[in-house]
Amino acid sequence: MYYAGGVVNLIQKCQNCGQSFSWTHIYLSLWMNYKPILCKECGQKHRLYFYSRLINSLFIIPIALFIPFANSKLELSQLFIVTFAIIYFVLTSLPLPYLMKYKSVASDHFLEETK
Ligand SMILES: [Zn+2]
User: Fold this and answer.
1) At 105, is the secondary structure helix, strand, or coil?
2) How many angstroms separate the alpha carbon of residue 43 from the centre of ligand 1?
3) pLDDT category, 69, cuts 50, 70, 90?
4) Above 60 in pLDDT, residue 108?
5) Strand order across the 102-105 sheet
6) How far, in Å, from the CA of 38 to the mean position of ligand 1?
7) How far apart are alpha carbons 65 and 44 in whole angstroms?
8) What average pLDDT does the chain have?
9) pTM of the predicted structure, to 2 decimals
10) What does the pLDDT look like over 27-54, one tens digit per residue?
11) How many Å lie between the centroid of ligand 1 and the Cα of residue 70?
12) What is the mean pLDDT of residues 63-71?
């Protein structure tokens, strides 16, 4: 039986062959609107669990609340706010590949399952 993720092996492994996905592989997938990951070893397609997307959303909420507040109350420059937001997104996204969980999907059913 496979065990997808855990305390020791934080980064996701292929549920078909057990090959670990690379941090870069998952990170790029996240920035490409949660693009499904194909295992480099066996080609098995993996799709992000919905709750992993929720985790991403939790990181976005603080900055989404901060920007309007900074705009109206703090009189910070637009440049500062934009720079701050970019740094925030980069820093909070760095550990995300360790938190994301994928499940393998049959390629044929992929389009149906994402609806
Ligand atoms: Zn594989």
Assistant:
1) strand
2) 6
3) confident
4) no
5) 37-38, 45-48, 102-105
6) 8
7) 39
8) 82
9) 0.71
10) 999 889 899 999 999 999 999 988 888 8
11) 46
12) 85
Distance of alpha carbon 13 from alpha carbon 34, whole angstroms = 17
Nearest one of 45, 63, 46, 61 to 100, comparing CA atoms: 46
Q: In the structure encoding, which two tokens stand for residue 27, read together? A: 């990170």
Phi/psi at 24 (nearest 5 deg)? -60, -45
- Contact indicator for 49, 101 with CB cutoff of 8 Å: yes
Ligand 1 mean position to 94 CA, how many Å? 24
Residues at Cβ < 5 Å from ligand 1 ion: 14, 16-17, 19, 39, 41-42, 44
What is residue 106's three-state secondary structure?
Answer: coil
Q: What's the pLDDT score for residue 76? A: 81
Confidence of residue 107 (pLDDT cuts 50, 70, 90): low
